[in-house]
């Protein structure tokens, strides 16, 4: 009787998540010779409730050391501790051990193992376990529980197609899907951006006899949110009341985020106001979505007001909050404010993130504060953050704006030394820096390096290289680049031909300039006023008045195709 009472006391402590108290009772039971396998099972369950799998493993070792014969319930308790901590390898090891001990796994055993595989996104293992579980179980209820656990693995791994295949198999076996089944599969479709399929599943769930809950609806709203389908998200939010369901903070946050992703900042703020007036209190996630919506629209003042509102409501801003507000500062080039917000992250003991630093560097770049941008790049390492490609792209762009091509190339070299993969944007910014500083040979070297970097040149990189050659009167190089672009299937545009014409004009090569002008017309790239102006100057410089007269006549007849003359091109 004393042993039974002790085990009940341990179970009570376990349900209250007081695992230390449960272990203390175990030690007392051991002193009085009352500890048996049931006692250890109860303590293992207590550790599982408290998500303390490390202590559970230590207790499992004690079970073996004390020569106690563990039953399947003991294994289930240890597996429960593994599930709470996503320790899938340890869980599968325990399952294999149970099999070796000739113990018959129960539905709970399989559900727990499937659950831990699900949390670790190990959907292939989950499917293998599901097949074993189906052979071992006879009840359809068990089929639903284990299938739901396998679906959860697909959800976490964003394997919506595998989840749908499993769902079809469940229906083929005439097993009634549960609300959890639909909720999980809708969530999986949302992760895979299959929002239309998610809505079809919701419709099927609504037409069934199941009692749909808020979790199901939230999964559908989130599916629309991830695909930026803001109107559908708002529609689903509005229908919650019709199904006698109350919107939760998750519902509001997903809807606000859907508007943010679709660039609907007005709708985001309107929803935030509605949420504030309801009995549901928006949390930091809700505010973060609204702030991001304002940031994308360049509304830095509104973003700042929302940040102040968070603190006024005694909510804790997160690093995501500050990063979003700093991003808003970028559009308005409010670099002083961006640096101040970055400092606040440190003051409030929030984790400094690469995203926040990148936003601050981009803001300084936009404000032409290149020294501040480079200092932030250095500060990232001081703060033990690793700059990424976005960090370097922003810093290189800062150098490009002030014509510091040598520093831009040095940053590119630093990026390479860190084994980071440069993008076309990275190399393009360096080419542009060389172009603006009239270093055409360096620009061409960078363009030539693109294939070795496994990058494909584009119109922007080609045009920047052409402009570099044009500025240095390297008309041979410019013509060669234009031909190379066509051979490499790089699309040329008006800017490409205008740059090549400029190169010829700088070198006094009026015949080539004129030839390029007609070639552009033949390619349906109607030259603009600037390009005609360059060709005119080339003819004037060579004293070819006949050519100038002919060009002026062409301008008159083609005037309806041209953009207005710029001062520079006239």
UniProtKB/TrEMBL annotation:
Signal peptide: none annotated. Keywords: Repeat. InterPro entries: PPR_rpt, PROP1-like_PPR_dom, TPR-like_helical_dom_sf. PPR repeats lie at residues 36-70, 71-105, 143-177, 178-212, 248-282, 283-317, 353-387, 493-527. Residues 148-323 form the PROP1-like PPR domain. It comes from the Eukaryota. Transmembrane segments: none annotated. Pfam families: PPR, PPR_2, PPR_3, PPR_long. PANTHER family: OS03G0856100 PROTEIN, OS12G0638900 PROTEIN. This is Pentatricopeptide repeat-containing protein, chloroplastic. It comes from Symbiodinium microadriaticum (Dinoflagellate).
